[in-house]
Amino acid sequence: MYTISGAELEPRHFGWHVADRVATITLNRPERKNPLTFDSYAELRDTFHKLQYADDVKAVVITGAGGNFCSGGDVHEIIGPLTKMDVRELLTFTRMTGNLVKEMRNCPQPIVSAVEGVCTGAGAIIAMASDLRYASTDSRTAFLFVRVGLAGCDMGACAMLPRIIGQGRASELLYTGRVMTAEEGRDWGFFNALAEPGGVLEVAGSAASRLATGPTFAHSVTKKCLHQEWDVSIEQALEIEAEAQAICMQTEDFTRAYNAFVAKEKPVFEGN
């Protein structure tokens, strides 16, 4: 089987650090609130694709430098050039950004977003496409595509956001582009929890560490089923989960958990 080490990925357009089976991605253009470029979009897409081969990475944290998460596509390096492209070039771009979300959902590791400050446009999409989301109390999240004359249906927002916060709330945010406060995000189920400014990365990192030391093969199966079962019937979902759980019951982690229970000990999972 082809495998790589997380340390071998070494992306060029954002920070990358692997420790204790957790990879941390840091969007690091703080002077501009960490906007994305054509290159960073593509490298994020490719990195999440390669993570399926990184056996030493069991969870991923994504955050931003300088007190902000991500301000979306760079106005000068993306938005400006897009106004000069023909429809073929534009479709290539929009498919590429959509592929970032596909790779985030298809990579086996749970992804945890640590959101501070500004989280707008494609930044809000990256948070949305993560498995868990934690935010600082001063965070401001906006799906602001309508503010630049675009539709709210960007990078899967019309499919995913209603499932997270409900159709009516998602409709309001996508039609108006208004800011969702941290408290609204928590109360609506977008954020799992809030932290004080400066503390959200620690909270998100702790969550990722707990996932990375858990039954990580089973976590990857949970993520796959959460993704696959959006558009299947209950009967199909029951069969998918029956097959998935039967596979998990063949793992050493399942046996370890049983033996630990019998011995009145805490199980130590190894992900196999």
Topology:
Layout: E1 15-19, E2 22-27, H1 38-50, E3 59-64, H2 75-82, H3 87-106, E4 111-115, E5 118-120, H4 122-129, E6 132-136, E7 140-142, H5 157-165, H6 167-176, E8 180-181, H7 182-188, E9 193-195, H8 200-212, H9 216-228, H10 234-248, H11 252-262
Helix pairs in contact: 1-3, 5-6, 9-10
What does the model show?
With 272 residues, this protein is α/β, with parallel strands linked by helices. It folds into two domains: 6-212, 2-enoyl-CoA Hydratase, Chain A, domain 1; 216-262, Lyase 2-enoyl-coa Hydratase, Chain  A, domain 2 (Orthogonal Bundle). It has eleven helices and nine strands. The strands form two sheets. It has a six-stranded mixed sheet, with helices on both faces. Strand 2 (22-27), helix 1 and strand 3 form a beta-alpha-beta unit. The longest helix has 20 residues, at 87-106. 38% of the residues are buried.
Second CATH tier, the architecture of the largest domain: Alpha-Beta Complex
Number of discrete helical segments: 11
Task: Just give the CATH class of the largest domain.
Answer: Alpha Beta
CATH superfamily of the largest domain: 2-enoyl-CoA Hydratase, Chain A, domain 1
The CATH topology of the largest domain, please? 2-enoyl-CoA Hydratase, Chain A, domain 1
How many domains? The number is 2
Spatial strand order of the main sheet: 1-2-3-4-6-9
**Into which percentage range does the β-strand content fall?**
5-15%
Largest sheet: 6 strands, mixed
Structural class: alpha/beta
Give the proportion of residues in helices.
40-55%
Flag low-confidence runs. none
Q: What is the helix/strand order? A: EEHEHHEEHEEHHEHEHHHH
The separation of the N and C termini measures 15 Å
The mean pLDDT is 93
